[in-house]
Amino acid sequence: MTEGVMERVAIIDLTTQQVECREIPESVLRMYLGGEGINTYLLYNHLPAGTDPLGPENVLIFGAGLLSGYDVSSSRFEVTSKSAEGEGGFGTSNSGGHWAAELKLAGFQHLVIKGKAARPTYLWIHDGEIEFRDASFMWGRDTYECEELVRDDLGERNVQIAKIGQAGENLVRFANIMHGLKRAAGRTGMGCIMGSKRLKAIAVRGTQGLKPHDPARLLETYRNHYRQITSTKIYPVISRYGTLTIFSVQNQSGMISVKNNQYNYFEEAEGRLDDEIFEEQYKTKTLACYGCPLRCSHRYRINAGPYAGTWGEGPEFYMMAGFGPAIGNADWDLVLAANTLINRYGLDVGSVSSYTAWLMELWQRGIVTEKDTGGLKLDWGNKESVLALIHQMANNEGLGGMIGQRASRAVEEFGEEAGRYLYTQRGMIHESPENTRASRATSLAAATTNRGSDHLKGRCALEFFAMPEEVLKKIYGRPIASDFRSWQGKPWMAVWTQHFTTVADSLGYCKFATIYPGSTHNLGYQQFCETINAVTGWDTTPEELMETGERIWNLERLFVQRETGLLRKGDIPPSIYFQPQPLEPLKGEKLDRAEYEKALDEYYEIRGWTKEGAPKPETLARLKLDGEPSHLI
Hints:
Helix content is 40%, strand content 13%. By secondary structure, the chain is an alpha+beta fold.
């Protein structure tokens, strides 16, 4: 038994309503940690090859991070399955809030959910017990309503709930799993998988406590990490505005998607879509995830106009950019009204905003007309049409409903010309806020992620700050050019970032407490090890953690190879990345295809992969991924 770790995995069969509990061997914990790592291990070994993502044989895996509930900003959980979106490859998503810590307090580290319930069901997990409860009375209700209905049904207010809205019930391919009012496990359609199993919610409540190996050492580590995070230059900004502060920086840098990537700077946003305006006119409260001093989340209310009375939590930069410049809008009211609607339905912000931007460009070019839209006028920033499309997507109605099931159907309907403006990777639409084609490491890292088009694993933020090269070398261990337009050292920077973010997601850390967002003084591998060793009694080193990140990454790649066969071809960015930026300050900047292919070769060489992007046998042997797993949980 590993001290400090809640080792139990519950195998939950919704078809038979049977539960089997197993323990994770310490050898597996040390190789995969928790969260994303253990989830990937469970997925690869529990899912038969070629499984239909929406079939009952698919598994949906929830996992708290190894350190969730222990350290500063360590409150996150991972949801993993075969993707419902795109090519049906690796599906995974990470979410914060309070659910992960509560799951551990209730006696479990991971849940493997299989089968399909005979009727709408929710799970009630409390102090080592798992109950199957009827959810028919809340089927068809949105996520805000579900939150209250579950609490009323249990007679328990202090319960944490992961749930789906109508989008998940209706099997929208980009439906999310939601926690609280805005915490989302987004991208790859985890909410669609949950809906296919007729599972409405998972409510957790626990009082069992966490028992670290060395409480005194852990307390001192916590204090040190708290001081470290709250003394950085970025802390006062992030704790006041959250990720909204990224928007103006990225817009003024010419790295924002405007009108479906037609432009890279949105002048209309200046003085209108500002974080200060949000704070002054809309923000009502500051919120935090479990044990987090960053307090980067907000609650808001619209006080005037057609959306007066609309309230919710958020938004993040992702929402601000996706429903701002990406669709030609500079009005906070629309951003917030769309944010509330999307969270209530349980939809993915990136997919909804990107598809909306695509349809608006088709309208602009005359490829789509009112005949196709059912009367909607898809002019840039048209508020009524934007909200109508969200309703349609969630409810499988009209044009939006067709997009929500398979965008390829829309391409077939509108013709080949329409497909030219639909930017996808691994079959999944490119994230709407991102327009980083001028940056070398970030473009490469985001494109080579295992789920496809992923800024959360591929954003090499330190690339953007023109840091002294000696500082970059100290962090990354190799020479890295400080100019984001240079390829020198960037393949290694991409690999390093992917491993680091994978470790953070396996431990349960919020990336904004780490060096990921661009603060060199936030938490890194050394601080991760300090907490791991205080909690478990292990002697983990930064070098061991780096290899762990590499191992998890390669196992995910094996899953992608097994399920899709899409390797090198899937590692190429959307076509728009090879076209020049039209506006200053980055006018003319683009990725050169030949240079990108050369960098991709170097990336594969660093990874120990073939020219086609498959892990070599010697790489798998070094990472102990060759042969059958030594312990099948």
